Structure formats: structure tokens, C-alpha cells
């Protein structure tokens, strides 16, 4: 049996740790790794015991060095097209998942690696991380959503600077443009991400999923449509047992016991 390229571990708080396990190749996205990533995303998205998902890279050097450039050199033009379609779908699956994803950027997040982090809902980074989209220096452009998600996160001006120069930002610069929400020492990074996951797990699961859909949809819609979409999401929560439970818990001055119903 070959070693897993993506490891999934779920702790007792319902926080899943999804680790890219190719440290020797700086966790580069080979086709085999992306296939395992697809399966891992489907797995954690379907599990009722999972409340939040952390994505991290194995080792201390890289979160993910992007597309596997050695594999790429062996691929036909059609293979490249198929890979772009596959990875694009993987990142859409993260966005479409009912579970919140937290990228714990523990080192270099370059090209597809940064695109993976951009598809996550929250990003924290170690103070050793470097982030960038170097594709133009490789004769290509970001092809798994980078040109579309980056401006939605940091605005057009900062996105153009990063995409057109291919330059790498350090963690503090990434935080200052809003690409990263928090910077931590390397040995505290996963702990911080877990703490965010545990905070998320305090919420009612159906409400968390509805909130993610509502906020995620905001950038796609005119305001009036977004307000209508928010109302639709709220409607689905009104008849839920967890909403009633939260009111009872408040009245009884105790923590709520949510069931995801
Ligand atoms: N694809 C395939 N292999 C990769 C890789 C990638 N994207 N990035 C790194 N590797 C491999 C290296 O070829 C090397 O393999 P080797 O041991 O067989 O020689 C190994 O990982 C270690 O890489 P190295 O560059 O020596 O590590 P480092 O710690 O000094 O630097 C990075 C790490 C990530 C900063 C550096 O490897 C890098 O810049 N990689 C390219 C990233 C990139 O341009 N990605 C954009 C893709 S669109």
C-alpha cells in the first residue's frame, strides 16, 4: 500500500485536520494528490461530526508549492487542460462545502498553493510563510481561480500587483493587504487554526452552513438579490430545533446542545 498523499484526522471537538503529505516535493499538487484531496473534501463535507476543516501542509517549509512542475513537464496539452478542470473543481468543492475551511499557511503558498488557500474561508499563516502567484514567470496565468478569487479578497489593485509581478509576499505583508487574517509563530499556527475551528464549532451546524453560503454568495450578486438570498437562508433556519434550543439555553443560562437539526 502506498502512503496517503492527503491525511484526514478529526479531533474530539469536530475539527478536521487535512494535511497535504508530500513534504519532499513541498506538497506540490500532483494529479494523484489532487485526486486524494477531492476524496478528503467530499469525506469531511459529508461527516456530521466535522464542524470545521483545517488545511495544512506537511513539514515546516511549504503549505503547497502549487502545481507539480516536474509532472507538468511530462504532460500533454490535453493533460494540462484536464488538470486545470480537476483542480478548479476541487477548489469549487471547498467553497461549496457546508463546512468552513481554514487554511493554515505553514510556509510557501505559491501558485496553485495560494489558490488553494484562497478557496478556503479563513486564512492564517506562520510568520515564515511566503505567498505569491508566480505563474506569469512560467508563461502561464493562475488557472485555478487565482485571478478571480484574489481580487475578491484583497481588491483589484493589490491583486494586479501580485498577479502581474509574480512577486512573493511575506506573511506580514500578506496580512496588511488582507490576504491573511492572522500571523502566528510556526509552532503555534495549527493551534491557532484549531482555536478558530473550535470557535466555529460553538455555532449551530445548519446556521454555519447557511452563513457560509450567504456570505460566499455576496460577491456574486447585486445587493437586492443578496438580501433576498440572505432572507431565504434565514427562512430555512426558523423551523430548526437548534434555533429553539439556543433560545432555551439562553433563558436557562447554559450552553446550547446543537444537533444540526
Ligand atoms: N513541483 C514539483 N516539485 C517541486 C515544486 C513544484 N511546484 N516545488 C518544489 N519542488 C521540489 C523541488 O524540485 C525539490 O525536489 P528535489 O529534492 O527532487 O530536487 C524539492 O521540492 C525541494 O525544493 P527546493 O526548491 O529545494 O526547496 P526549498 O525549501 O529551497 O524551496 C519553495 C521551497 C517552495 C520556495 C521552492 O521549491 C519553489 O519556489 N518552488 C516552485 C514553486 C512555484 O513556482 N510554484 C508555482 C507553480 S504554478
Describe the structure.
This protein has 261 residues and is of the alpha/beta class. The chain has 2 domains: 6-201, Alpha-Beta Complex (2-enoyl-CoA Hydratase, Chain A, domain 1), CATH 3.90.226; 205-252, Lyase 2-enoyl-coa Hydratase, Chain  A, domain 2 (Orthogonal Bundle). The protein has 11 helices and 10 strands. The strands form 2 sheets. It has a 6-stranded mixed β-sheet, with helices on both faces. The protein has a 4-stranded mixed β-sheet with strand order 4-6-8-9. Helix 1 (31-46) runs parallel beside helix 3. The mean pLDDT is 97. Residues 25-26, 28, 61-62, 65-70, 108, 110-112, 134-135, 138 line the site of coenzyme A.
CATH architecture of the largest domain: Alpha-Beta Complex
CATH superfamily of the largest domain: 2-enoyl-CoA Hydratase, Chain A, domain 1
Mean pLDDT: 97
> What spatial form do the alpha-carbon principal axes imply?
globular
The N- to C-terminal Cα distance equals 39 Å
Low-pLDDT segments = none
H-E order: EEHEEHHEEHEEHHEHEHHHH
Major β-sheet annotation: 6 strands, mixed
Return the structural class: alpha/beta
In total, the number of domains comes to 2
Cα gyration radius (Å)? 19 Å
The count of helical stretches stands at 11
Bound molecules: coenzyme A
> What is the helix fraction of residues, given as a range?
40-55%
CATH fold-type name of the largest domain? 2-enoyl-CoA Hydratase, Chain A, domain 1
Amino acid at each position: 500500500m502506498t502512503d496517503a498523499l492527503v491525511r484526514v484526522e478529526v479531533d474530539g471537538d469536530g475539527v478536521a485536520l487535512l494535511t497535504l503529505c508530500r513534504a519532499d516535493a513541498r506538497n506540490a499538487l500532483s494529479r494523484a494528490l489532487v485526486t486524494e484531496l477531492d476524496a478528503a473534501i467530499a469525506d469531511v463535507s459529508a461527516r456530521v461530526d466535522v464542524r470545521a476543516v483545517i488545511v495544512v501542509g506537511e513539514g515546516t517549509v511549504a503549505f503547497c508549492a502549487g502545481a507539480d512542475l516536474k509532472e507538468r513537464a511530462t504532460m500533454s496539452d490535453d493533460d494540462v487542460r484536464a488538470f486545470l478542470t480537476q483542480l478548479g473543481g476541487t477548489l469549487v468543492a471547498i467553497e461549496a462545502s457546508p463546512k468552513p475551511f481554514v487554511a493554515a499557511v505553514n510556509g510557501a503558498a505559491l501558485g496553485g498553493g495560494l489558490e488553494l488557500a484562497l478557496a478556503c474561508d479563513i486564512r492564517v499563516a506562520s510568520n515564515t510563510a511566503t505567498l505569491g502567484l508566480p505563474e506569469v514567470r512560467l508563461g502561464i496565468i493562475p488557472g485555478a481561480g487565482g485571478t478571480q478569487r484574489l481580487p475578491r479578497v484583497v481588491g483589484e489593485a493589490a491583486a494586479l500587483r501580485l498577479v502581474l509581478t509574480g512577486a512573493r509576499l511575506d506573511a506580514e505583508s500578506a496580512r496588511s493587504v488582507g490576504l491573511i487574517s492572522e500571523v502566528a509563530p510556526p509552532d503555534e499556527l495549527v493551534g491557532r487554526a484549531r482555536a478558530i475551528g473550535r470557535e466555529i464549532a460553538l455555532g449551530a451546524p445548519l446556521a454555519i452552513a447557511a452563513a457560509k453560503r450567504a456570505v460566499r454568495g455576496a460577491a456574486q450578486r447585486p445587493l437586492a438579490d443578496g438580501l433576498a438570498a440572505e432572507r431565504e437562508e434565514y427562512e430555512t433556519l426558523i423551523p430548526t430545533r437548534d434555533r429553539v434550543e439556543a433560545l432555551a439555553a439562553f433563558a436557562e443560562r447554559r450552553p446550547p446542545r446543537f444537533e444540526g437539526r
